[in-house]
Structure formats: C-alpha cells, structure tokens
Design brief:
Number of strands: 14
Largest sheet: 7 strands, mixed
Shape: globular
Strand order of the largest sheet: 2-8-7-6-5-3-4
CATH class of the largest domain: Alpha Beta
Radius of gyration: 24 Å
Amino acid sequence: MSVSELKIPVNQNILEMEYAVRGPIPIRAAELRKQGKQTIPCNIGNPQALGQDPIAFYRQVLSLLEDPSRIERERGINRLMSQDPEAQAAIGEAGSISGYVLDLAEKILSTHGANVGAYSESNGLFFVREAVANFINERDGFDPGGPLSADPERIFLTDGASEGARHILQLLITGPGDGIMVPIPQYPLYSATIRACDGTQVNYYPDEETGWVFDRGILEESLETAKKDGITVKAIVVINPGNPTGAILDRKTIDEVIDFAGDNGIVVIADEVYQENVYGAEFVSFAKALGDRDVPLVSFHSVSKGFYGECGHRGGYMELRNPPTAAGTDLSFRDIIFKQASVALCSNLVGQLMVYLMVSPPPEGSEPYALYVQERDAILQELEDKATMLREGFKQMDSVECFGRTGAMYLFPRLGKLPEGTNDFDYCMALLEETGLTTVNGAGFGQKEGTHHLRIAFLPPKEMIEEVLPRWIQFHNEYVNR
C-alpha cells in the first residue's frame, strides 16, 4: 500500500480543535504577504513581531547567560573606559554593559551551577521559583514565612502560561462528563484544550453592556444548566484582565468567584498574564483575594505579555494554592503536576531565566534602573494611547460599540450592523482583503447568539494605526451600508 492510500484513524478531538487567532484569516494574510501585499497583523498578542523593542536590561543579561565568555571581556571594556577618556568617547555608553548587569549574570550562572544548555529540576530552577514566591508576596502584601506566603515548592516554571493551563486541564478532565466553566468570549487555548482532553466546555456569560462584569447569579445559572445535562463541573476559568475583552475584574467579582468555587467544590483557574496591562486601573490577584479561604487555586503569569513582550522565550509560571488530593490516592495535585513536568524533563532554561528577570527587576538606584523604568513606562503608555486612538475611531463607525475598561492588549468591539446574510467572519475577511488589517472574528472566541464582534490587538506602531484607521472607518461604513 502506498502512503497516499494509507488512512490512519486519529484522535477526533484533535481534528475538531479550533484556534482562531491562527485560523483562516491569518492564513489568508500569510498568502497575501507571499503575493507582496502589506498586512498588519493584529490577530495575536505578539508585541515584538510588531516592532516593540525588547527591554535592554533583559536582553543584556540573557546575552551574557548565553555567552558567559563575554562577562570578563565586558569587564575589561569597562576598566578601559574608566581609565581612558578617549576610549570612553569612542565606545560610548551604548557599547558598555553596567557592572550591575555583569554581576547579576555571574550570580545567576553560579547559582544555577551550569550553563543554559543544561536541564533544571523538573519544576524549574529553585532560585527562580524562590524569586517568583518573593514577587507574589511583595505584589500581594503577604508576610514572607507567614501563613499566606507563596511556597516555591508549589510553583512550577512552564513554557509560557499555556503549558500550565494544559497541565491542569489534562489533570482535571477524565472524560466528556467533566466540565470546565469558561467565560464567553474566551481565549481559545481553553476551548481547544478542553476539546483535546475530551471534556465539556461549560459557558458563562459576562454582561457586555455593563463592562463584561458578572455576578454569582450568572455563575450559578451556568452551573445548574451543566448539572441538568449530567455534567460535573470541575473548575472555573477566569481571565483577568480579560482576553479578548480587556475587562478588568474588581475585588467584589473576584470574591464572588472564590466563594462560588468553594461552595461548589471546584477549582479556580486564574489566567493573570495581563496583570501589568491595566493602564491606571487596579489589578487584584486571585491569590490576594483568596486569603486564608480553603479553595483550590491555580494561577498563571507569563513573560509574553505585560510590557515585556518576550513571547518567543516561552517563559511562565504556575502557582498552586490549597492543592486538593486526587480521588483514590494520597497524591496531591502538586505531586501529579510534578509527574507531568517530569515527563517533559523541564521547561526551557532561557525562558526560566527570563521569568527570573521579570520578577526581579533592577532595584532603584542600580545602574540599569532609570533606563528600565523609562522603557517600561513608554511601552505601557504607548499601548494605552493606541487603544484610545482605536476607541475614538470606533465612534466614527456605524453601529460599532466597545464596552468596558481598556485592559490586556485587545479591544473587542461589537458590530451592531452587518449586511444581511453576512457574519463577523465575512467582515474580518473583507477587512483584510481591503485594508490589510488582520483581526479575528468574534465567533473565534465565542459570543452571545445574535451578536457579532472582532478582536484587534492594539500592538502595531502608532503611525501604522494612524495610517490604517481612516481606511478602516471608510471600509466599515461602506461595507455595512452596501
């Protein structure tokens, strides 16, 4: 039998997975680029692909960790510059690396005890997990060593937050009778992974017109519907700030989620990768709100988002609080996730070390501090400015509304008017063909029946948005009124 005739049965759940942010619209955009046409990729939160410069502090340290032979060479350059004004003028500050960065790189390598090509412990380098614990304690006001203090042994370093989400969903789902509550709209990592694990997605619907907020009643309604369908809900996913909506949850809503989970014996899965992207609002972590309540919580953070934008380094962490015991065993969820991590040996080392840098920024008064703060603030301010520009543009589009505060890296405007017989996929594909703007249609994230949306990542350079926005406005008003 030839290979062309060979038909091998495969996992139907994998065949049926969907991931809209890299789906048909981005695929068509890639085809257009091959034809020499310009496209503007606003379909995915990938900042450095759209021109965001990396933070200098991160890249300086990482470059030394990848090539430790440079450390002594850079020290020699610094000595030469301090002794010879002409050399200093010739090299310039941009050509030197501060003593703080050199010392830090040396300390990291010494603590690791190997180069970055070596494996770490399965759950990640201990000193990095310890730094993550310190970061959580400082962020949430926990007393180190106190009852709420983060435990490095319940922290796992992962290849981005996505790997952590897959670990916990694979652990929880035993078959189609197991349900995972997800907000609609939601990030399609969750729907795709639930499908791959043969579980059931249980939708709950934040109220769009009040800013994508929800209360206990919305959660209870979703749970009761699942029970009537014979589904056992095992966990609730909450994305804060939201993706794709950008919604930022307040303390009251977070408390209601925790109480709801505790009363119903389910796990809270808190996706908090956009916690830096709140643009003046307050971020409240689920760990802080949880306090001493005995509710299982799994939370994630990532180097890909925030102002870091280090998507390609695939670094993240997962923290467990109150891990339950697996039925029929004496193993806690922590023990089983460690087993899962061990199968993969460990997450990538450069990603782990990028997590260390994320949670251990240069302290005030250190040589890299001023530039670090300047770069951080400039990135976050530009993101907010671009989101504001787009929101103002929506006001000039017929029947377009965008609800809620600006958070994360996305806007999720509602398309209140479309030509008869069309949907938001048709709109986004036509928008791409006409303007080169690559967005994702709302149906790719889920939405209430009868509504239409799109998600746009406000990441391209400001001048690019300024150039394309008038063309989008013109396209929109002509398209919906044709």
